[in-house]
Amino acid sequence: MLIVERQKKLLDILRERGTAQLEVLAEALEVSSSTVRRDVEVLERQGVVERTHGGVIFRPRSTASLALEERMREAVDAKRAIGGVAARMIEPGMTVYVDGGSTVQYCIEQIEARPLQVVTNSLTVANHFAGDERVELLVVGGAHYPRTGVLIGPITTAALSGLHADVMLFSGAGLYEAEVFNSSLEMAEVERLAVKQAARSVLLMDSGKFGRKSLARICAVDELDLVITDGAINEKWPPLLGERLQVAR
Q: What is the pLDDT of residues 94-141, one digit of tens each?
């Protein structure tokens, strides 16, 4: 059983029961207690479960707390500044791939260049551009990931494999050493492919995520063309990232 499938089954059990002991979950999933414990740690970071002494509680309301609208209330000034720098990179006539990250949302609100082709797997991004006659919008289909409102899975990656973009704009859960991470395996898979399909790939990430490692690796920093962050970035990062780094002021 794949990790993502096991974690989905774990959530299904908790959704039905409300709470369960780790030993019970391990038996139901036919894995060790340590494996269940690692899965629970991942799901807790996603905000859908809460660990208790020896057990786990399903938190259906916490999904909303980690939804895009909530994340957009975090580091607002930094994300808006980062988004503004990225928005000014976009020129009329470009094909731009945009993912569903919160920092990217601040970017698309500031993109003035028209006409544009916009490719996205984000329903929020699609809704933003849907009423604009100067934007040719292509929504890449797939399975809906409700926590972020993006479409993921084999349908998404199959569609992306035949597409090209002049610029890819995306954000992630963290940048650790020389690698970029996401908290979702399937989202990371989509972003990994999109990086390869774009002429230029640009990471939009606030300084609070630097030094943070998450579940799934997206790519190495040297696979990117640009990393845009805010002025609060720790002084150790500029020498490590070199010319790829641009700081929004």
A: 999 999 888 998 999 899 999 999 999 998 899 889 889 999 999 999
Q: What angle do CA 195, 3, 35 make, to 5 degrees?
A: 135
**pLDDT for 208-224, tens place per residue?**
999 999 999 999 999 99
Evaluate whether 36 touches 43 at the Cβ level (below 8 Å). Answer: no
* Spatial contact of 184 and 146, defined as CB atoms under 8 Å apart: no
Q: Is 2 exposed, middle or buried (0-12, 13-18, 19+ CB in 10 A)?
A: exposed
Number of helical (H) and strand (E) elements in the chain, helices listed first = 11, 15
- Cα 153 off chain centre by: 14
Q: 10 Å Cβ neighbour count for 27?
A: 12
b/e map 175-210, b = 16+ CB within 10 Å? beeebbbbbbbbbbbbbbbbbebbebbbbbbbbebb
CATH of residue 115: 3.40.50.1360
The model's pTM: 0.73
User: 225: domain range?
Assistant: 69-248
Indicate whether 193 and 221 sit together in one domain: yes
Same domain, 77 and 57: no
86 and 48 co-located in one domain:
no
Q: How far is CA 217 from CA 23, 103, 178, 195, 213, in A?
A: 29, 19, 11, 13, 9
- Verify that 85 and 29 share a domain, yes or no: no
User: Do residue 223 and residue 113 come from a single domain?
Assistant: yes
How many structural domains comprise the chain? Answer: 2
Q: Which positions of the chain have pLDDT values less than 50? A: 61-66
